[in-house]
Amino acid sequence: MKSLRIWMLGALLTSGCATTPALREQSSVPDITALDAEVARAMAATGAKGLAIAVIDHGDVVTTRAYGARNARGEPLQPDTVMYGASLTKTVFAYVVMQLADEKRLDLGTSIARYLEKPLPEYPDEQRYSTWSHLSGDERWKAITPRVLLTHSPGFANFGFLEPDEKLRIHFAPGTRYAYSGDGLILMQFVLERGLGLDVGAEMQKRVFDRFGMRNTSMQWRPDFANNLADGWMVDGGVEPHDERSTVRAAGSMDTTLNDLARFAAALVRGEGLSAGAFAQMTSPQLPITTRSQFPTLQDELPPEQRRADLAAGLGVVVFEGPQGRGFYKGGHNDSTGNTLVCLPRGQRCVLILSNDVRAEAAFPWLVRFVLGETGVPYEWEYGDKKFWDGR
Predict the structure, then answer these.
(1) Of 144, 176, 338, 362, which residue is the least packed, with the fewest Cβ within 10 Å?
(2) Which one is the CATH code of 28-87+220-392: 3.90.550.10, 2.40.50.140, 3.40.710.10, 3.40.50.720?
């Protein structure tokens, strides 16, 4: 019932009311010449070697541009260069889960125990998943639902292997607070594969990659990717070769291109492939976010008076309120990757940035603002104390 009340509050806010502040007028997106110049400034200021950016307006992809190099040999980064999707994978996976919910294959508010033949901790340990046997003796796992997993609230650390003893555990009552967890998404994958008998890689291929013509996107490494592949640059300027991920991981194994992922972003902000109700739930507040920043994952909650009222977990995305109304976004990151997707349902606008140089993240707030105007994306929560380029 608590999740339902949160969703109803989100629906009320979406519908608008007399106390809703006037929304800021949306300006036109910049032309290619202006965008090229601004990205060049950003790359020079941050030292980033490669960056690709797509702009979606009124639900259509209007611009895809790539800049710089895809590897240390200086070969050019292009809109069809294969790049690491990182945690943007989670949003694509959540979209598939929402389709399954639309089809009544699963219920977002029902315990995962309903879909499993035996208790979760009794499943044999498998390398491709986390170690569910570590939860033996903690019956709280039965309170975990698909909604809990998609809102990053099962009570897990990001990954069990990051725990001091490398054992997965539940740190708080599932569904009561946000704490980012890749293992939570891996558990959702496990439920689909072991509980519903689905192949998540095949489902994502059919429901997303094939549907939207994403020919160079996959949840597993493909040898043909090597023909036009991006390596990455780390904070110290060192080069990290592209990882050939051979296992489907809902938390972040997707390889993709700017052109491909822009097609998905445009479809998502249009709500294509989802019922109106499923799209509303995915992109509306489902659970308040109560921490100062996203990481460290299990940090203390802020006192109620210090929490942000404009920030909440959606389903596979983070939802925020800003001067242009509600928006949603998702980031992606590793040592040599920086990605961000920001969407405004009003005007069906998005900015997608994929960078094969983690140093580019410092320019993300500026570039998103340059394209969309002030949105209210909570980058200080997303990145914590990271210093951002201010456009000067």
Answers:
(1) 176
(2) 3.40.710.10
